[in-house]
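Protocol step 4 of 5: obtain the predicted structure for the target chain.
Materials: sequence only (see below). No template structures provided, no constraints applied. The aim of this step is simply to have a reference model before the mutagenesis design in step 5. Sequence pasted as it appears in the construct record:
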Amino acid sequence: MPKKSDKKVELLSPAGNLTKLKIALNYGADAVYGGVSHFSLRNRASKEFDLETFKEGIDYAHSLGKKVFVTINGFPFNSQLKLLEEHITKMAALNPDAFIIATPGVVKLSKKIAPHIPIHLSTQANVLNVLDAEVFYEMGVKRIVAARELSLSDASEIKKHLPDLELEIFIHGSMCFAFSGRCLISALQNGRVPNRGSCANDCRFDYEYYVKNPDNGVMMRLEEEEGVGTHIFNAKDLNLASHIAEILDSGVIDALKIEGRTKSTYYAGLTARTYRMAIDDYYNNHQRPAFYQSELHTLKNRGFTDGYIIRRPFERLDTQNHQTAISEGDFQVNGEVDASGEYFLCKYTTQIGKTYEIIAPLTSHIEPVFNDIGKIYTYEGRHYLCLNKIILKNNAELSEIHSGNTHPVKLPDKLPPYSFLRTKTT
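Step 4 output (structure tokens):
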């Protein structure tokens, strides 16, 4: 087994907006990635960021000693090059820790405009071999976000030839039907171009099968059993939590990346928290794969696969979910604690007398309390909340509260900001 490096692997989480950025960092991410404008493949998510809030996020991360990488990984047309230059200039002025870029031309442009900003090559560049990695390394790229189709053995070959080049791989999140996002089904059907950040997720739709007789033009729909075989393009979600030790033992991976451009705040927190535990456990010579999986299965998902980093695509036939576009997780998120820690916002029906598990950042300290509003207590290493009263911030009192109610609800005592309240659904 290779000797564990003194330099720990970096955990990188998505930041769809300022709240998710703060949640990911508080729950254990070392760095986050996000973007502003249509030059980012996080187009839909990045609409929640503007220059002011993105700058606030960068400053917040730096105050914690953590990093923000800016996604400028779209594929620009000639008519947009002037705008792109202005965008790179504006992003560089925010003092981010790196740009994530997909094309050689934009790499060259960025080196010219902002030579002081390190460049990470986007997974969209589809680097799978030493030759391509070497070309980008010679252009000044510091890190390559490898294509999801890269194997661990191929990563080792790249690292052997280019030891100073950092390698980053995806460990969790949505998988694309095509090679690392280079699918055009959405562009064909909806005019929304995936590699420009506006994919409509057409691969998740139900599809019907037809056959046509070329001799007479007759077209017939193929009948099939309900719920079987309709989601023909639908990939399962990537989940490598059970392979952290194998990946880190290789000694060639510098960063582990979580996908999640449009996921929930709970997803941002729970994935960062779980993979933080898995990484720290590894360096402490302790692994709990069953526990990591139990936590990750609380998330909504399309089924899980360990993808291709460990095995080649042709060696497995379980990467597609042909039954459903999305499945509910094992837990329901009922509430999300606000930044003050004194109130929570209802995300699902919450009732008096029912017990809710508290999920908080790993470094949190939660004190037990019992008062008129309710109790907070610990049982078998987990924290729980039970309400005696549901009192809103405006002092209105309810017997129960539903997700449509946007009024903050008082807690019996302060909880760590951005904690979650959840209940088991199965």
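Step 4 remarks: The two ends are 40 Å apart (CA to CA). The mean pLDDT is 89.
Proceed to step 5.
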